[in-house]
Amino acid sequence: MKLTRKDILGIKDLAVDEINLILETAESFIEVSTREIKKVPTLRGKTIINLFFEASTRTRTSFEIAAKRLSADTINISASTSSVVKGETLVDTARNLEAMNPDVIVIRHSAAGAPHMLAGMIKQSIINAGDGAHEHPSQALLDMMTIKEKKGRIAGIKVAIVGDIAHSRVARSNIYGLTKMGAKVIVAGPAMMLPRNIEQMGVTVYHQLKEAIKDVDIIMMLRIQLERQQQRIFPSLREYSNYFCLNRQNITLAKEDVLVMHPGPINRGIEIAPDIADGPYSVILDQVKNGVAVRMALLYLLTGGKS
Amino acid sequence: MKLTRKDILGIKDLAVDEINLILETAESFIEVSTREIKKVPTLRGKTIINLFFEASTRTRTSFEIAAKRLSADTINISASTSSVVKGETLVDTARNLEAMNPDVIVIRHSAAGAPHMLAGMIKQSIINAGDGAHEHPSQALLDMMTIKEKKGRIAGIKVAIVGDIAHSRVARSNIYGLTKMGAKVIVAGPAMMLPRNIEQMGVTVYHQLKEAIKDVDIIMMLRIQLERQQQRIFPSLREYSNYFCLNRQNITLAKEDVLVMHPGPINRGIEIAPDIADGPYSVILDQVKNGVAVRMALLYLLTGGKS
Amino acid sequence: MKLTRKDILGIKDLAVDEINLILETAESFIEVSTREIKKVPTLRGKTIINLFFEASTRTRTSFEIAAKRLSADTINISASTSSVVKGETLVDTARNLEAMNPDVIVIRHSAAGAPHMLAGMIKQSIINAGDGAHEHPSQALLDMMTIKEKKGRIAGIKVAIVGDIAHSRVARSNIYGLTKMGAKVIVAGPAMMLPRNIEQMGVTVYHQLKEAIKDVDIIMMLRIQLERQQQRIFPSLREYSNYFCLNRQNITLAKEDVLVMHPGPINRGIEIAPDIADGPYSVILDQVKNGVAVRMALLYLLTGGKS
Fold first, then answer.
1. Phi and psi (nearest 5°) for B10?
2. C-beta atoms of A98 and B35 within 8 A
3. What is the CATH code for C137-287?
4. Among A32, B71, C12, C121, which residue's CB has the most CB atoms within a 10 Å radius?
5. Alpha carbon distance A274, A277 (integer Å)
6. Which pLDDT band, with edges at 50, 70 and 90, does A57 fall under?
7. pLDDT tens digit sequence for B144-197
8. How far is B246 from chain C (nearest CA, A)?
9. A137-284 CATH fold
């Protein structure tokens, strides 16, 4: 089976068959990263551009490692060193890159919809590596891959997503993906962090962590974006932490075999207690490992690979 | 035929035969970037260093893609992360790189003559990727390649270069190259943007856009460097734009099959109207495409390749 | 013979046999950088991450070139573009990288002991590329390699290390290494730049350059860190230079065949006169050349290579 779409812009657009194809392809790539020689010649002679307008270690590194393990050539462009400082528009930057004939452009941008705009204008494949508070599809795919790996399935799994739902592209992409795949999704956070009408996305809403995580299989904690604190979304970090930090007491409300996920970077002691982040329930580093495989799958499928 | 020189520092130094050799080699490399596997093993085991002391997306990316499509290893060094912050001199930086035995150092620097100084001191090949307001030879070569591609020849072609001629390394390199190759070159811009005695470079000077582009085959618009605006080279952007922005009205003064070029990044609505930049006359993205091929040719020829 | 340790954290930990193994392996790699095709397939499919929390040209570039000449894939992460700006801890950054399964992480950090902490936590090999004022083992190894190359041996050689000994990781690593290898080490600098009890490291201490360099085989000048000047470690640069700048007069006190070394970047005219840095005694660029070979040896040996 092949992926027929040109771009990966969000989970909202993906059909269940497409998600299954990506996850199965990713599963087959896990093994490459464990070999003595961690490299396959699949994408030799392909050019992958990482166009990052926001700082990122893990996502850029994950895409770059994924590309290199497939033998693709990678080019990194970060906003601070780019022509953006000369006032060029995003569209002109992208059209210029298009003219150099890359195969895939991976883009992260603070403006929601930026990757979609580019995808409609240029002929190469675009992967959205995070656009504002909109979508972060490769993150949701690696999260779904991790749930499937650990629980054997996604359908019927009960997942609580906790934190600043309103400003989280990770939450949004996961809500689209998990509900499509048949999981039951619960979201929780302080009132100011919950978008109006979020129920319409097919989720159950709670305002208390303790209610939300009751009997769930998966708890997905979101990162509190400390840089937003100046905007006073919540009274204080301490207060947030009192009510929403996952710790060894409140986690007992979840199922006994609950798994804890976090997209990183972690604020230890704010949204998650250190002993939970590093403890036996945590699959946070499995998420990272699976991230490389998911990105290999996306690059492979978008450049014409078959499962 | 082989290139016998060690460095590419400027178009001023190049003989017509050398320019022809570079353009013909570049034409033969165009095809590589259209292959399924966009890579040839020609420069395997060669090390190319991109040493950029000024921000750049397109030029650095173009050189990096060119090097990778030839299978060279590339190292990027940008001023902000380099020892320059520790106060090291340019010469010491270059000598240190020399000792690591790269094959080519591609350098962009705000000081005119910086690449020439290095070329005289170190044994590896230097390519000037832009030095102050002096020269930008790979840009002029890709411009000439584009003219030749679209018009079938350079000799006899009438080219108007419009904008801040005095501060443009693109203008200077193109004037050297186009006059050498037999084109007729016209320059135009406000008085403060025209260097004294520019006629001695073999060009015709006009102070009005409308005079300059009359019956020309090619209009090459230069980027207004907004960052210089504080120096008050011209009264206002609006005034500049009123007199020198290429738009659908004034372009009718040129030949019917006129082509519009721009080195990028474009200031839309300042030196060029959006519908002209994106319209049928524009070959701006052909320039970018040819840029990769020209840089492949330079890297190939400087490391001993034959046409 | 193989290296049995997982990490290279400092020279203090290394046995003489290990130092000899590294130097001999490095000597065998010198030839690779002089080939027409400067590349061997030894580390194909290995992933090397350069994780630099401090600005660096030469060390990062040297490791990157070393890795590429061994055919490894390299990933550069610099602090300014990393998740560190989002407040992630160093440990979480490293654990995330660990989960992407690289083979070696090369780390530079301003905090002494940072590489050691990581080495104890993650399963991949760590190379310390400079931690605070603590150690810089690859620098000391390339220095020892240069001494051995030029003098035929290290044992019995008389080496003066001059400058800000107290704040120099280069000095510390060299003191450990050179004394282990049987050299006689002298240190000199103004009183405020000499750590208390430095004699316990097995060195002789002088407060005058002229005393320190008398009859020595090697003078190793340290870089005065101008950025520390605000802390007023010494009254003025001019005064420092008057007493401690190596120049054509005072160098005559050393042996006739004395060699001058410097880890770079050089402050010309402050700790070393330009004619000495560029003169016949200087082996500064040999140090840089050997740096690539030493780093190839470290990457090779840590990933399981045998001499």
1. -170, 165
2. no
3. 3.40.50.1370
4. A32
5. 5
6. confident
7. 999 999 999 999 999 999 999 999 999 999 999 999 999 999 999 999 899 999
8. 39
9. Rossmann fold (3.40.50)
